[in-house]
Amino acid sequence: MTQTEFESFSVLFFEQLKVQAKEIIKTIDNNSKVIEYNLIDPESDLMKEFIRNFNNVVVETKVKNYKLFKKVLQHNSFIQVLKSFRNSDVLVRASQDENGTTALMEAAYCPTFNSLLEKLLKYHVDINKTDNNGNTVLFYASRNLENLKKIIKTGIDITHVNRDGETILSYCAKMNRVRSFEYLKNEKSIDPNHFNCIGRTAAMHLVENTQSLLLKSFINDKNIDPNYKNKFEETLVTIFVKNYYQHYIGNLKDGSVKGAMYTYEKTKRFGETLKTLVDLNCDFNVPVDDDGNTPIMVFLLMKDYVTCQYLLSQDKVSIDLSKENYHGINASYLSLFISSEVFDELTYHKGRYNDKLSYSALKKAFIKNESFDKKYLDVGDEDIKIKSVDIESIRHNNNNNNNNNNNNNNNNNNNNNNNNNNNNNNNNNNNNYL
Asked: Where does this protein have compositionally biased stretches of type Low complexity (predicted)?
């Protein structure tokens, strides 16, 4: 038997195997002696090449007839071929569950399979193979930093984007894989501003997961625009407010003490993230919902007066209290409905912080803000109102008095004395207001 005969057989065999032709069994029958002569030694180059080509067909072909493959391997002339096939990497290369997850992906995901991962990487597997969601093994390895480093060393495509539009960097931010994110953010080939199918960036995912420290360093190190707005009008601030609102409604508003420690820690993380957004000079006047409410308006509607007080006290942010929502309502108007009862329920040292965190202090903070809508100054709490408008009242009264004095210069001294007495009375009254 010549090698040329074997080569002719191989060409025909693999052509039929790729299309899963039933005639392949007859081809084996007709070349049984050629097969037995050339494919007897499992360590021979001919056998290794034959198995490699066979496995490639199994992996790359959409198999419709597994019975045919089984019948081929169980043919009497393929006894040695079957043994070599079982000892090959084909099961590793071809095996995927209903989600498209391969053995390599499973090994990369689970830390207990680290030794198995190293063995699997020695096979000639397709390192860029994806599951049904377009995730490569790199996405699975992001759960374990050491495995992630091993996978990157294989030369895998780290710029790959899955079906959700996530890069490995934005995926780590989304899944809260902090250690992997910190490692990957230094990869120059990954775009830090990449956005997914719904316009979310890695920075936005960090806000969602209240990763304040990581967010601040990422924004500063990569020169990312903290006020970037996607096609859905979302910014870091709008995402923060929406997430905080859901947390507030679900854990705080009902007064539930279930999971109190978790709620406290989570609320603390929201507070730290808010501070980071302020430090980054984010715009806090952007509409955050379908009604066009700004963040300060949302916090007023939530009766989260602590956050309102904090924002109004920050010099780094400019809060526009006159900006109206889509219904013509602004924060100045909403501030008229601040409830003193909420402060009565707050648990803090009211004597020590009364000048900073109280009903009166918050009302003053709103009215003293330069953007406060002045048409609402004559509405609401009388005590606050008088203290906020007395300067304008004094100016108005003094101007009227001066005009009266000028008009009455020709009057007698008694009238002048009366005017002076009236002016003194007015000044005394004004001082009382102050």
From this structure: 397-434
